[in-house]
Amino acid sequence: MKTKLLGKTPDELVAVASGCGLKPFVGRQLAEWLYVKRAADWSRMGNISNAAKTRLQEEYELGTSAPVGSALSSDGTAKYLFDVGEGRCVESVVIPDEDRKTLCVSSQAGCKMGCRFCMTGRQGWHGNLDAADILNQFISIPEASELTNAVFMGMGEPLDNYEAVDRAIRILTAENGFGWSPKRITLSTIGVVPVLKRFLDEHRCHLAVSLHNPFPEERLDMMPVQKAWPLEEVINLIRQYDFSGQRRVSFEYTMFAGWNDDKRHADALIRLLGGLECRVNLIRFHKIPDFPYECAPAVRMEEFKNRLNNHGVICTIRASRGEDILAACGMLAGQR
Ligand code: SF4
Fold first, then answer.
1. CB of 108 closer than 6 A to ligand 1?
2. pLDDT per residue over 134-178, tens digit each?
3. Is 111 in the pocket of ligand 1 (CB under 6 A)?
4. pLDDT tens digits for range 60-97
5. Which of the residues are catalytic?
6. Nearest CA owner, ligand 1 atom 4
7. Which of 99, 122, 223, 244 is 20 to 30 Å from the Cα of 44, by its Cα?
8. Could you give the 3-state DSSP secondary structure of residue 189?
9. pTM greater than 0.85
10. Containing H/E element for 163?
11. Which helix (H) or strand (E) holds 245?
12. CA of 51 to the centre of ligand 1 (A)
């Protein structure tokens, strides 16, 4: 099996070229084609000689692969399906919004975390993506050259596959990689505490935490992670970092009627997050099969939002995107 070039850092690509007996500049050209020009096939790499390509192809493949399916929502959101081998597929979503195009990227095939309200969690874990699989979602879509932002909020828990996610973020933010500012990237997690600490120490990207319920025993009922990494520990860790400047932290709060949408929850959330520079995003719950809860009524969400805002916790209701193509939060299942 050949080694993938995609997912290697620009410095590693230079080493690859040297290892193949080619000049180091061929490695720099590879990095530019893959990460700056987002070229998904060899034929576009016009300034690399055929002899150099042939030599590289003896040991390496690009590691790019086109989506095997796509769907377009009436609101302009696009969903792409990628085959990541061994019968596994993952999905990515492109969300256009005014002058932004945000890619919601997957990091695992399925997920181990088992959140009861999530279609990805229901299917269980079928393996980690490597950095090439992650970056391919940026490169092999029609919008590749138009992407402005990325959220690690697709299938999987990114901090449960940190080596690959860390590598992908390093390439995205490297000057001779994609050259993106970390401010363009948000990582969303349910709070795998020790890995979260590593991420906060090593990267300047924004953070989003899936909170959903401020009461430990109630949260545990829907999110098994609460047992291993209680929310309190997650918040205590976050309080040790500075989110008053460039880096931001937000808390995702999906609203279920009768589970987490009343005044008691709003007040507990205000106490939990008091004094922290953050934002709470209320998310409409999108109904999934065989699950007893419905989305909280719009008026209830509005009251919840107002209560938080009136007590100094910035809160917004996030617009739902791509629901008609099963691309909204919690709906990704990676099925053909
Ligand atoms: Fe995994 Fe996130 Fe779904 Fe929980 S919500 S099961 S962490 S993908």
1. no
2. 999 999 999 999 999 999 999 999 999 999 999 999 999 999 999
3. yes
4. 999 999 999 999 999 999 999 999 999 999 999 999 99
5. 91, 329
6. 115
7. 99
8. strand
9. yes
10. helix 162-173
11. none
12. 46
Identify the band that residue 252 occupies on the pLDDT scale cut at 50, 70 and 90. very high
Domains, the chain, with CATH or none: 3-61 (1.10.150), 69-325 (3.20.20.70)
**184-206 mean pLDDT:** 98
Q: Which region, left, alpha or beta, applies to residue 324 given φ > 0 means left and ψ of -120 to 50 means alpha?
A: alpha
Indicate the pairing of strand 149-152 with strand 100-104: parallel
Sorted by sequence, the CB contacts under 8 Å of residue 1 that are 6+ apart come out as: none
161 lines ligand 1 (CB under 6 A): no
Q: Which residues lie closer than 8 Å to 296 by C-beta, 6 or more apart?
A: 255, 256, 257, 260, 261, 285, 304
Distances (CA, A) of 329 to 83, 157, 204, 285, 323: 21, 13, 24, 8, 8
Please give the mean pLDDT across all residues of the chain.
Answer: 96
Ligand 1 pocket, residue 222 CB under 6 Å: no
Distance CA 185, CA 172 (A): 9
Q: What tens digit of pLDDT does each residue of 265-297 get?
A: 999 999 999 999 999 999 999 988 889 999 999
* Helix orientation angle between 162-173 and 131-139, rounded to the nearest 10 degrees: 40
